[in-house]
Amino acid sequence: PQKAVRQLIFSLFPYPDRIRLLLTPLALYQKLGLSKFLQSTGLLKRLSPNLAAMETLLPDVTPSCFFDNLPELILAQGEKRYRVGMILGCVQRVFFSGVNAATARVLSANGCEIVIPRSQGCCSALPEHQGETNQAQALARQMIDSFEDTDVDYIIINAAGCGHTLKEYGHILADDPDYAEKAKAFAAKVRDVQEFLSDVGLSAQLHPLQAQPLVTVYQDACHLLHGQKISQQPRQLLQQIPGLILREPLDAALCCGSAGVYNMLQPEIAQELGQMKVNNLINTGATLIASSNPGCSLQIKQSMERQGKFVALMHPMQLLDMSIKGETF
């Protein structure tokens, strides 16, 4: 059964168009209450714990899931400081398109002209992390080709797992004579969006998100903290939002249990990790969790639901976007 689940994951998740083919039946499945019914019976968990884990992690299907909502070129607001490429991700572009839209608005507001090639596909993170080398290499080549001749200063990504893999393209394609040098040059331009904005500095004015202090806890994604050594930059950006108070959780480096597709392949251990992570985050007294990776966000939300707890969770780019626009909670 696990072999079949692995095959499903690698045949589906790296291909946004394939995911979208399933959105209509998935939307009906959720709308008719079949999801909650199936979870309440425990039948799927008895048949396949892996499929049950996948089903409980499924985000809500909304109209925005069905199409890409960003143009190929977005102009900088005010003086242009940089020309950057933006990678949309796979699960990210389908289920978290709002995060991508917020990221684009934040970059534009801070003087970036943004290029978003239509031909871009998966970054190859899922197959690379699971040893599916041939698939990972093919997807990496496609990504490099999609940004060829775009003349960008940097290539920006807002999902931690994707960013870690994109920076490894030089290693992934080291033995490919046609792509080895291209891969090194591509990887040298890759920046996590928080890393980039922290380095170049914010030029847009920020406003409070609410009248009272907003107590927030930042969730360290493993692929950012361990894979890319990015920890202080997200915190530095969040602390620039007026009125935002940042709390530190106990054992901040603890994995939430998502770990790419680990929570679908080893759901019981992942569930234990998720419960510990959520307890540590909530015990800070924060009323908002800032999370920089879609897999982590889904895992944390699921773990909160299991414990009957709820704390708002948003990507740091969504918070910066609201602050720039002067929106409040």
UniProtKB/TrEMBL annotation:
Pfam families, per the entry: CCG
Record carries keyword Aminoacyl-tRNA synthetase: no
GO molecular function: 4 iron, 4 sulfur cluster binding; metal ion binding; oxidoreductase activity
Limits of the Cysteine-rich domain: 85-167, 217-301
Key words, A-Z: 4Fe-4S, Iron, Iron-sulfur, Metal-binding, Repeat
Name the record gives this protein: Glycolate oxidase
Alphabetized PANTHER family for the sequence: GLYCOLATE OXIDASE IRON-SULFUR SUBUNIT
